[in-house]
Design brief:
The chain folds into two domains: 219 residues, Alpha-Beta Complex (Spore Coat Polysaccharide Biosynthesis Protein SpsA, Chain A); 106 residues, no CATH class. The protein is built from 14 helices and eleven strands. Strands 1, 2, 3, 4, 5, 6, 7, 10 and 11 form a nine-stranded mixed sheet that branches. A two-stranded antiparallel sheet has the order 8-9. α2 links the parallel β1 and β2. α8 runs parallel beside α11. It starts with 5 loop residues before the first helix and ends with a helix.
Length: 344
């Protein structure tokens, strides 16, 4: 009998993890793409979806031995839901790594193989790749994310160019080694901070990984086509604003070395002044009051966790600073914000 292909062997210990929240049809498309890419173990967590969506999810996967569906009676968010999936995956002694993939994404087999090959060759703990938005109306696909970039305002965003600083993989597509997941749980008691619920939890994890000197890789192959905010119907709303900014404040105060926090204060102040002005003009002042109030109310917990993060970090502030992009923030976003203010 001939030798099994290397790409197939490399997936033997891989467990894919997908969260479903009222996206049953997209989730089925996602799991089908993973199966077609050769992933044999796929975990799906239904995050307290509506009864009709749950029924559709279960019926769509009936008879597929590769997919195991978990249920949560409460919405755990991306952070808590991912933690539950990771715990379930690690309970299998055969699991060597976990692939997180958004339910509204379609995996690309060649890119997944390339990521796994890179992970094995470089002994990386975290690996990400090139995510594109699906082509529309005959137009070529555009970049959705090349991972996470952390800017000097200490707000992170999707990396859009390989010339931008690479912090680590986005939670939309990320492969984590078992050793990294187990070490992270030992240090902090969790992989993703459950207090975040959703947004910036992947940035928080990547910052802690970098502080621990984990090996982080990037593969510039197309790994997935991603619709974007599938469970939110593509809207940017108060929910995203609240969680994204609140969690970014917590991430900075929990994990960024103190000297860097001090040196970046002018940029941080400029960022939040811009956020307040822009979103006040857009009628979101009450949301801003709530998010900043809750962010500061949560700081005592964050500062307690900060002690553990800083006591166990293995890189200097200068080494970590090299991972921060020189730009204030994502260029296209800043231009759009300035245009909005000018029009008003």
């Amino acid at each position: 009998m001939g030798a099994e292909p290397a790409a197939r062997r490399s997936k033997d210990g891989l467990v894919a993890a997908v969260i479903n929240f009222n996206t049953a049809a997209l989730t089925r498309r996602c799991t089908r793409s993973l199966a077609e890419a050769g992933v044999e173990r796929i975990l799906v967590l239904d995050n307290a979806s509506a009864p009709g969506d749950v029924r559709q999810l279960v019926e769509a996967h009936a008879g597929d031995p590769r997919v195991h569906i978990l249920r949560s009676d409460e919405n755990l968010g991306f952070a808590g839901g991912s933690n539950r999936l990771v715990d379930h995956a690690l309970a299998d002694p055969g699991c060597t790594g976990v692939l997180l993939l958004n339910s509204d994404a379609v995996a690309v087999a060649r890119g997944l193989d390339a990521c796994l090959d890179l992970m094995a060759a470089g002994k990386h703990d975290l690996v990400g790749g090139r995510m594109l938005k699906p082509p529309r109306d005959g137009e070529p696909p555009v970049v959705d994310s090349l991972g996470i970039t952390l800017y000097k305002s200490l707000l992170a965003s999707n990396r859009k160019s390989t010339g931008d600083a690479y912090l680590g993989p986005t939670g939309g597509f990320a492969i984590y080694s078992r050793r990294f997941l187990e070490a992270t749980k030992r240090l902090y008691g969790y992989v993703f901070d459950p207090a975040y619920f959703c947004y910036a939890e992947d940035t928080d994890l990547c910052v802690r990984a970098r502080l621990q000197k984990a090996s982080v890789g990037y593969c510039d192959e197309i790994v997935a086509y991603h619709e974007g905010q599938g469970s939110n119907e593509g809207r940017y709303d108060d929910f995203i604003l609240y969680h994204g900014i609140r969690n970014s404040i917590w991430m900075a105060w929990k994990s960024i070395p103190g000297w860097l926090l001090f040196t970046q204060l002018p940029w941080i102040a400029a960022l939040h002044a811009g956020i307040v002005v822009r979103h006040t003009l857009q009628g979101r002042f009450r949301t801003l009051l709530r998010l900043y109030g809750d962010a500061f109310a949560g700081l005592p917990r964050v500062l307690r966790e900060r002690r553990a993060v800083q006591q166990t970090r293995r890189v200097s502030a200068g080494e970590f600073r090299a991972l921060i992009d020189r730009k204030f923030y994502e260029t296209d976003y800043v231009r759009g914000a300035v245009r909005d203010l000018y029009r008003r």
